[in-house]
TrEMBL record:
The lineage of its organism: Eukaryota, Fungi, Dikarya, Ascomycota, Saccharomycotina. It is found in: Cell membrane; Cytoplasm, Cytoskeleton, Actin patch; Endosome membrane. It comes from Kluyveromyces dobzhanskii CBS 2104. GO terms for molecular function: actin binding; calcium ion binding. GO terms for biological process: actin filament organization; endocytosis; endosomal transport. It comes from the Eukaryota. Pfam families: EH, End3. This is Actin cytoskeleton-regulatory complex protein END3. PROSITE patterns: EF_HAND_1, EF_HAND_2, EH. It is a peripheral membrane protein. Residues 101-126, 229-270 are annotated as: Disordered. Gene3D superfamilies: EF-hand (1.10.238.10).
Amino acid sequence: MPKLEQFEIKKYWQIFSGLKPVENKLTHDQVLPILFNSKLDTSVLNKIWFIADIDDDDQLDFEEFVICMRIIFDMVNRNIDSVPDELPDWLIPGSKAELVNQRKKERSTGASDAGSVADVPTSSPAEDTRKEVDWYISRDDKTSYESIYESAIVARDNSVSYVSISSAVRTKYINLSSQDVEKVWRLVNPKLGTSLDKDPALYFIHILRQVSDYGCPIPSQLPSALKETFTKSRVSTDPSSKQGEVRRPSSDVSNISSYQTPKRGGTDFSVTQGTDWEVVRLQRELANIDAELSSVQQQPSSHNVSNDRLKLVEQQLKQFVEYQRNLVNNSNKPSQNIDIRSLRDDVDNIDQQVQVLEQYLNTKKSELHNLNIEVQSLQ
């Protein structure tokens, strides 16, 4: 992954402030529109949130938000194929380096505990007298657990992420540490997925309730029947599910780029369009483009953008608009032996011309930005 650039951080700040953070933090609900607009799979988004939320408070401050956004856009732009298990050093904020190291130690300790043999004797007599976890779930308990499960953010396939279910459980049972929650998550999640189905989620709550209320030790392994159930692959019956879906590669995602610079990994924010603050930001950027174009045109001739080519683009766009008007006018007239195939060919040609013009416009914007950098360096 390319490292963070200063202009990226400024863009992330514009989005962060536009989401109206409270006490300089954003909740999961506030970030949710951006996550969904990225079109990434829910399991991927859950993993991104988990790795970005370094302090495990189910909120993102600005530094954590930068991590979240950068990984999302690197995934969208296909600069990386999967979410990293650990943050690269250049993406770790200096103020949170100690927390990241602590998190790594807790995970390594939890992994060794989960792999330990169940019959290893302990030296503490107090632990020997503690009540073991009861795997039976009564009807009343199940009703209570389902209430907690439904209070979490449930995905369309009825699965829940670590962030959402752990937050709901710790709100209900306060005598739990982050390490306890992570151990139980790994216990009921043998395949180490980024989300749980309803049944494993109910046992996740069931175990943590007994740990919190009765001080039960966390089991080292699941009963064989439960483990077999939890490791089965889930087949989605949701018609909107993406399982088995084959798509034609989309040029809209692979070609999106910022006007300020040639394409760089993880810097595209077009997937966040559709909100009021984004409209304001785009209007501001349009005004900046006009201002920069005027300033560059006033520079010495060695830094001028080719006016002839810009006029050519303008002329072609006008011709395209005129052609569209003619199509509309002709469609309102009685049909007289219309050649459908010819019209389709014309529409395809127009689409290709529009794509070429858009690419040319993006190239000009990039050249404009580079010229501005050169002018500033000469001043």
